[in-house]
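>> Question from a student workshop board

For tomorrow's exercise we were told to take the sequence and the ligand below, predict the bound structure, and bring the output to class. My setup keeps failing. Could a helper post the expected result so I can at least see what it should look like? The ligand is pyridoxal-5'-phosphate.
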Amino acid sequence: MMDRTEKIETKIIHTGRDPESFGGSVNPPVYHFSTVLYKSVDELVSRYDNITPDSRVMTYGTKGSPTSFSLEDAVAELEGGFRSISFPSGLAAVAGALFAFLKSGDHLLMTDSVYYPTREFCASVLKRFGVETTYYPPCIGSEIEELIQENTTVIYTESPGSHTFEVQDIPALSAAAHRHQAKLIMDNTWASPIFFNPFVHGADVSIQAATKYINGHSDIMLGMVTTTREDWEQLRNCTWHLGQCCGPDDLYMAQRGLRTLSVRMKQHQSNGIQVAEWLKKRPEVRRVLHPALPDDPGHELWKRDFKGASGLFGIELEPTNPSNVEAMLNRLELFGMGFSWGGYESLIVPSDVEKDRLPESWTFKGPLLRLHIGLEDPEDLILDLEQGFQELRTDAPKSSKS
Ligand SMILES: *Cc1c(COP(=O)(O)O)cnc(C)c1O
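>> Workshop helper replied:
Here is what the output should look like for this input. Compare the format with yours to find the bug.
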């Protein structure tokens, strides 16, 4: 275990690595295996019997190897939890965390600003298994206590919110949850462990879509769930019962990406703020949804609890013809159009959140865009956006670029 007083930039380099055990190799080996062979019946039986919360033994392909332990130990330490387990996608991690801590007859309090596929999981699978979900406005804070029922066992939060970027009061949600013996599960993908420490702020379980910043190169799918010591066995056992496990090459790629996470996040942050500040001054932009901007409604909470901002934020455009927005997006050359984010490249997508949100938590009806600011030079990104904005002028001749 690393000395916990070290700075996160140092920890991220050394955590989860054990060169001495692998012939001095700086990076962990990639174990391709399903079967583990035992020398005797005695060893076969005892290896299984010796699985403890802390054990790091190989027993079968679904139950971990030095390749997965390396990534999991590193993420657990950076998130500030006890242990992590990996899932084949971020959504699998979300579903795995909810499955582990909910049962039939339970009530779940879910943020209204949640990642859309999480909402779909609640409306389909959890509903079928008899779990009732109530959505709460993301800025509810300690008033969430009024929504807690006798059978509420989980409060689920994601901060800032998906597409709309509301910052939530995690310590207040945690205090309310714990007064009622409920767990607080947090999706911490936006900030990554570099910019938010979920366990210091009272979460019991933290989720990372490692597909995004942890891997950082848009080339694998992976999810991680981290818990406190108290909640670890429940999560690990449920994950094993579900048969969730990941391919060794993907696990290796994620731990490789992780080593540069802190430098990448700092660059995403500064590039993102530079582009956001430019956008704020543009007449085409009604509002920039970025918690690091001082007049953002979530700024004070963000400043209190977060250590930085990632490269993902939103903009509301001034009312305009939908075909102009389409032309603007089509005209961009450096910004790719596509889902996911957290890689080295800039992305932009139109957001469509109105149909699902509580009327009290989201009212803007105009065009909403989500930007992921990558590691390009921000001046070049600004020039690209400036070109795109020409299409928003109703008198602009339509570009012929496809
Ligand atoms: C992308 C994302 C997920 C899901 O991750 P996948 O690996 O794409 O399944 C979960 N939560 C948040 C906040 C995300 O942005």
